[in-house]
Amino acid sequence: MAHLRKRRRRRLNPRFVALCLTAMLLAAGGALWWVNRPLPGEGVALPDYVEEKLLPENPWSRPGTPLKTISGVVIHYVGNPGTSAQANRNYFASLSSGTEGTYASSHFVVGLEGEVIQCVPLTELAYASNQRNTDTIAIETCHPDDTGEFSPVTYDRLVELTAFLCKTFKLNPETEVIRHYDVTGKECPKFYVDHPEAWETFRQDVSAAVTALGEHQGR
Q1: Who contacts 106 (Cβ-Cβ below 8 Å, separation ≥6)?
Q2: What is the CATH architecture of 50-217?
Q3: What is the pTM of this model?
Q4: C-alpha to C-alpha distances, 136 to 19, 20, 133, 150, 213, nearest whole angstrom
Q5: Which residues of the chain have pLDDT under 70?
């Protein structure tokens, strides 16, 4: 009878096993980091001119939903001529009762005198920009009259704040600073929808301010 040939057992290469184990550990570690990675707005130190007056957590104006991505800044106007940053912040806070059934808020409000109030942390989304709530920072801006044009002091502060955010989150002012109008077609901010050239000037001013920030930090 022919002898049956014994099949040789292949020995696993120790180096191959080690490489596989290392790859598995790295993949598991990467997945764990991705799940627990810090939010982009976490630990950001805001400029001194920003006054923190956070809204109470509630389903209507500050749901506490994490803002996991920041890929743009959306500019709004309050649509209520002559009102202050504090008045608009208080309006957002009043929505917490749910009586009006309205979802609305903003990360920041820039006032008539150039004051800035933070209403929602940069680590949470605000109810301002519809489908772009999940990846943008919202700025509401006060204005003195029905035209919706910002006063010089308000405009300058808005440029300064927007430039700071662009610098912090590595955003391009020419493409990633947008109007509410660019998201939904809503006439907001009104003056800068009615006058597209003024909007382009604003974005150019923000770009120049970002450059100036970089030069100042490089000294």
Answers
A1: 76, 88, 92, 119, 120, 126, 128, 138, 139, 140
A2: 3-Layer(aba) Sandwich (3.40)
A3: 0.83
A4: 41, 40, 6, 22, 21
A5: 1-14, 16-37, 215-219
